[in-house]
Design a protein that fits this description.
Largest sheet: 5 strands, antiparallel
Order of helices and strands: HHHHHHHHEEEEHEEHEEH
Number of helices: 11
Structural class: alpha+beta
Distance between the termini: 143 Å
Strand order of the largest sheet: 4-3-2-1-5
Strand content: 5-15%
Helix content: 55-70%
Radius of gyration: 35 Å
Amino acid sequence: MSFNMPSLFVLVATIGLGLFLTAILNWILKRLSKQETGAISSILLRRCRSPLWVLIPVLLALLAMRHARVPGDYQALARHLLSIGLIFGFGWLLVTQILGLRDFILLKYDIRTKDNLKARAVHTQVNIIVRIALIAVVIFAFSSILMTFEKVRQVGIGLLASAGVMGIVIGFAAQQSIATLIAGLQIAVTQPIRLDDVVIVEGEWGRIEEITLTYVVVRIWDSRRLVVPVTHFLQKPFQNWTRTSADILGTVFLYADYSINVEAVRTELHRLLEASGKWDGKVWGLQVTNSSDKTIEMRALMSAPDASVAWDLRCEIREKLLIFLQNRYPGSLPKIRAELASFPAPEKEMVR
């Protein structure tokens, strides 16, 4: 059966009209989104422009199919293809709106600020929830497309009859994967870690760079990436230096002779901290924490706004205190004492 040329022309013209209307609508939406930068309506309008290139032409083509004289075989094929396009378009639109809501929420919480504890918590929860929502939308859209095929629909009905048995089998086979996904949800709710948290995992110091439903990426201090399963943070101990706040205490240990003037070192420490821009002004102190038969141990304590600054502050104070000891108290640097015992001179051997 041949295709009716006027009907083909109507469909092509309808799709062309849809593309033209989409271009005009996108131009209008672009102008509207620029008027309220940062508003939720502006973000959603900007995000929805791309899916309209599929939705509007497909919707107009479906309406034109009612009036176009298309032979039965071609009509069924055309309706099937347009239905797939409609499902794809709506799924795409839903994905863009979810991402738009994510952008709107995260825009209000900037993790680049110093006091970013609340922002990091929100970023962690929102990113995990958005990933779950996107996976659900993709699965639903893909399943809907498959159900448009008659043979697949019949197979699906047959599978539903044995859903109980299949559920048990799949549950046993994928119990580790399911446990991992549940662990990802627990991370989002309980938040033992958040984005940009400073942690020590497997003996490595780094920051949480990415959290997914199955794994966590830790950016090590030397720019390496440590990929850890999410279950690790629920089953094994680890250190989180920014769990409740980003500020942290740093220590510097110095060793000197017993003759050192501890009070002078304490005064110099305070002067160096006040001159440094890395000290937050909250905590400082110097104490003699240990002694041995050769030296005494002095611990300099100082606070910093975060772990990275604390590291730099410790290095700075350690270097400057060493210079202070070398210049002011060179005789009090660690030394090894020894006592020389005097022995009587050996008698000359008598010559016979």
